[in-house]
């Protein structure tokens, strides 16, 4: 006789239970250990700090989960971060010397009144952010079309486009890091709601809610799972596989653009060499959160928990004064463990 779960009469499968809830136990265990080991970890300020640190990776992971669930992968998002930052940098950069000279010539200087140097019109800031996000989204379209239309391997396509995108970032900035002194723009990544909750955390929460609804409660989401789970069956069922795959990359490009704007705002600069390694963190968050590399299996809550696990690892090791190199090793081991668990679960299901 098979065991039932909560008296429903349905067979209890440990593999399914661990896929759905295992990461929650891992996160809770890590938090419990750090609560005991470090008094600083218990503070509200540290909690907000962790959430702020994972905001950019979280936004990227929300896009990546659509791509992987549909059976693809995107290695170009690190370069997209650099491209977005380079675009806003090129449009919003103001040379300090020229700005000071122009301000002195056009503004009556009153003793004790600080000059506003480096500010740009709000319309220019909005346009710069829009163009940065649009550019990354267009590269998402390109990735999707190359993969879906020409049946090219996502790994090869995005590995190639990341070089193109990175090169464009260097061309746009001339290879320089462009300092962004606009207070209005810096508010995007450094400002706080009610002087308490950083805006990047709010953006992450809003995008996570939208992604949850889109993936779990819409026809599009069901099609994403269908394409990733069994593409031939999806085609036979009348699913437009081409556009589903393309849209997964479009969503990824959009998320990369948003994350790139936030990153540029946080570091107050447009840097063509930024974003390296972020694709690894995004993929790691998805896999740790239960997303299957085989496609067709994922959850948004699991992905968010995966993001938090990586953030807690980094934060905990810093608080315990563990060498930062060990953080990379720990992340790699987590990915290996998550992939092995995924393989075991898939094997048992078959």
Automatic annotation (TrEMBL):
Its main location: membrane. The keyword Membrane applies. It is a multi-pass membrane protein. It comes from the Bacteria. The keyword Acyltransferase does not apply. CDD domains: TM_PBP1_transp_AraH_like (cd06579). The chain crosses the membrane at residues 21-41, 47-68, 75-94, 125-148, 155-176, 196-215, 249-269, 281-314, 326-345. InterPro entries: ABC_transp_permease. GO terms for molecular function: transmembrane transporter activity. Pfam families: BPD_transp_2 (PF02653). It is found in: Cell membrane. PANTHER family: ABC TRANSPORTER PERMEASE PROTEIN YPHD-RELATED-RELATED. This is ABC transporter permease. It comes from Candidatus Pullichristensenella excrementigallinarum.
């Amino acid at each position: 006789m098979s065991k039932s779960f909560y008296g429903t009469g349905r067979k209890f499968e440990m593999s399914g239970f661990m896929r759905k809830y295992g990461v929650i136990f891992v996160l809770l265990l890590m938090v419990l250990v750090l609560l005991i080991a470090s008094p600083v970890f218990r503070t509200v300020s540290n909690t907000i700090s962790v959430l702020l640190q994972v905001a950019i990776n979280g936004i990227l992971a929300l896009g990546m989960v659509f791509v992987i669930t549909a059976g693809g992968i995107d290695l170009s998002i690190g370069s997209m971060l650099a491209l977005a930052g380079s675009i806003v940098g090129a449009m919003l950069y103001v040379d300090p010397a020229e700005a000071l000279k122009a301000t002195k010539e056009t503004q009556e200087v009153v003793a004790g009144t600080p000059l506003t140097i480096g500010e740009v019109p709000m319309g220019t800031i909005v346009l710069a952010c829009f163009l940065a996000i649009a550019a990354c989204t267009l590269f998402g379209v390109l990735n999707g079309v190359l993969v879906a239309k020409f049946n090219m391997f996502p790994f090869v396509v995005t590995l190639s486009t990341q070089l193109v995108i990175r090169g464009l970032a260097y061309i746009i900035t001339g290879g320089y890091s462009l300092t962004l002194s606009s207070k209005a723009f810096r508010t995007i990544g450094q400002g706080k709601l009610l002087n308490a909750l950083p805006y990047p955390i709010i953006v992450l929460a809003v995008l996570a809610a939208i992604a949850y609804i889109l993936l779990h409660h819409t026809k599009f989401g069901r099609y994403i799972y269908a394409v990733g789970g069994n593409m031939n069956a999806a085609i036979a069922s009348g699913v437009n596989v081409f556009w589903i795959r393309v849209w997964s990359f479009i969503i990824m490009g959009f998320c990369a653009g948003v994350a790139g704007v936030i990153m540029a705002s946080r570091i107050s600069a447009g840097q063509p060499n930024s974003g390296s390694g972020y694709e690894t963190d995004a993929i790691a968050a998805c896999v740790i959160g239960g997303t299957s590399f085989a496609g067709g299996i994922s959850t948004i809550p699991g992905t968010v928990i995966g993001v938090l696990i990586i953030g807690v690892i980094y934060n905990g090791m810093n608080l315990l004064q563990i060498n930062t190199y060990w953080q990379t090793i720990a992340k790699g081991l987590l990915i290996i463990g998550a992939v092995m668990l995924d393989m075991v679960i898939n094997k048992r299901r078959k």
